[in-house]
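This section describes the prediction task in plain terms. A model, or a person checking by hand, is given the sequence of a single protein chain and must write out its three-dimensional structure as a string of tokens. No templates, partner chains or ligands are provided. The sample shown here is typical of the held-out split.
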Amino acid sequence: MDKFKNVDAVILDVDGTLWDSTPIVAKAWTRAVQENGCNMTVTADMLKQLFGRTMKLIADLMLPHIEEKKRYEILDVCCEYEHQALEEDECNICYPGVKETIIKLSEHLPVCIVSNCQSGYIELFLEKTGLAPYVTDFECYGNTGKSKGENIQLVVERNHYVTPIYVGDTEGDRTAAEAAGMPFIYASYGFGKPGRADYVIQQFDELLQLITK
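The expected answer:
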């Protein structure tokens, strides 16, 4: 654990790491795809297998039978309905201790967010949780069109971090951290099972003991 005591920033994934929005999003996406002529029901379990990938790849995997241009248009509608549903829902869908831990972490070092989500999703997360004042920077695929590893590196470079870590829950998160040249902390309560990790947390607040002095 001592190797994490010199961390100068913590960069976080969202879905499966900070909250589980899949039950709400599944209903919104089902409405979107059915309104666009697809006779399918999107489930939370389906989304847990898809989340963590870029939006384009999610569309390809979820709607392979739909012509390419149309499937991306449908996913845009999915994201629109998702945003509305999450904005209107009053449930606390964060994992236990997330808000309190981020606030405490921010007293010691910068906290950032990088996700493969669409534009506006991280802002919605910050608005719903009230965590905007405690998050230094964020980036996503929807803003840049870049991979998660590249977006992590963007955040690192523009903030001049030297020894950051990335916290996520999937193999894609692990490879992104590796591509960006930093340790990967695996949130084992999340959606995925990465091949390896530099450290494993069973609950989010374990980050405080791991990286604060």
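For orientation: The CA atoms of residues 104 and 208 lie 8 Å apart.
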